[in-house]
Amino acid sequence: MYNFEFEKPDTIADAVAALGGEEAQALGGGQTLIPTMKQRLASPATLVSLTGISEMQGICTGDDGSLCIGGATTHGAVAAGAGVYPALADLASHIGDPAVRNRGTIGGSLANNDPSACYPAAALASGAVIKTNTREIAADDYFQGMFDTALNEGEIITEVRFPVPEAANYQKFVQPASRFALVGVFVAKYADGVRVAITGASEGGVFRWTEAEAALSANFAVSALDGLSLPGDGMIGDLHGSGDYRAHLCAVMTKRAVNAAG
Description:
Number of strands: 14
Radius of gyration: 18 Å
Strand content: 15-25%
Order of helices and strands: EHEHEEEHHHHHEEHEEEEEEEHH
CATH topology of the domain at 167-261: Enolase-like, domain 1
Helix content: 25-40%
Largest sheet: 5 strands, antiparallel
Distance between the termini: 49 Å
Low-confidence stretches: none
Structural class: alpha+beta
CATH class of the domain at 167-261: Alpha Beta
Number of helices: 10
Shape: globular
CATH superfamily of the domain at 167-261: CO dehydrogenase flavoprotein, C-terminal domain
Mean pLDDT: 95
């Protein structure tokens, strides 16, 4: 590891000011950034830790009934405290291992937008709102490709608001070495329709399977998905599975999620 400056502000305003410095990088739980720095794939001059900002931690219920989670809240805390949204709590409880869950944060995961991370599927399927220090971004506008988001330089995720669905479930086909999703499918049923988001599969990152959404909105049953499939083109192909294999898993895991949610 090389030498760098480290700052741990206790307010959002101080964090924003610190990130205005040259080559400064926000640090959540560090579960992705620190290994990246060790491999010299990133070399920020200053790390600005967000873990000391109390106003970015914790879980509450909003006036509209949505679940509000601070950006610096750990996966372990989400697993323990998101009881009003059981599918989200269950998702958080299966991220990585205990060390990762006790350090990694929901804001850090969404800011990084790893194409195989779990939270992007939950946020997109839930129609969540990502709140930053300057604005609010709908999940449909937030995710813009592999490791790419609508965040501007120095912008911080301060809170994520999840509308709580009538029924939901997340199914993850685990890549056993990394514990990331080889394919993960989050299905959420709301009064106005069903949303289906898939992570781990596409070269473009997390995406909504609109054909499945239409079928499930008309009939929320596994049988509604019969005959539906995704093409292998544009899917990730690597030593763990081809694009066609991942496309097949998308359909399988969607059916499992609907069955579990129903």
